[in-house]
């Protein structure tokens, strides 16, 4: 999706079921998530001041959730940047392919849960920003 834009990315409200003994949020393929989840991973114990991400994907879509704590996600399509604060475990940021992403400002104890549309494939990554800009223009 070379022509994708940051405006194709959006916050998704996840099902939140309140109970006096604690809340539960359900995420289901084909219902809650706009793609089939093929891989799940999470980031935690990110040292203060550190950034994660710093890359784009050619084919992979993601749903990023602040399972605990908070952090910011800055999306960049080569022309426009948008920054989202993730701080609620019942909201996820849907990121389409062809978008550069950087995660910053992790609060102490935060957990970033990532649901991905594909299994890990190093060939799907664009890790150099100048190459990303060339990819978007080709």
Automatic annotation (TrEMBL):
Lineage of the species this protein comes from: Bacteria, Pseudomonadati, Bacteroidota, Bacteroidia, Bacteroidales
Domain Sugar 3,4-ketoisomerase QdtA cupin: 8-136
InterPro entries, per the entry: QdtA_cupin_dom, RmlC-like_jellyroll, RmlC_Cupin_sf
Stored Pfam families: FdtA (PF05523)
Protein name listed in UniProt: Sugar 3,4-ketoisomerase QdtA cupin domain-containing protein
């Amino acid at each position: 999706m070379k022509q994708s834009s940051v405006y194709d990315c959006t916050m998704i409200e996840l099902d939140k079921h309140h109970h006096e003994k604690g809340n539960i949020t359900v995420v289901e393929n084909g219902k809650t998530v706009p793609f089939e989840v093929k891989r799940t991973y999470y980031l935690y114990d990110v040292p203060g001041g550190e950034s994660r991400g710093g890359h784009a994907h050619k084919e992979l879509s993601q749903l990023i959730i602040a399972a605990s704590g908070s952090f910011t996600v800055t999306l960049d399509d080569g022309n426009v940047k948008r920054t989202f604060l993730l701080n609620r475990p019942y909201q996820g940021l849907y990121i389409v392919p062809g978008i550069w992403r950087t995660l910053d400002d992790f609060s102490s104890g935060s957990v970033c849960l990532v649901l991905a549309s594909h299994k890990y494939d190093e060939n799907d990554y664009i890790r150099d920003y100048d190459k990303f800009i060339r990819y978007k223009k080709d």
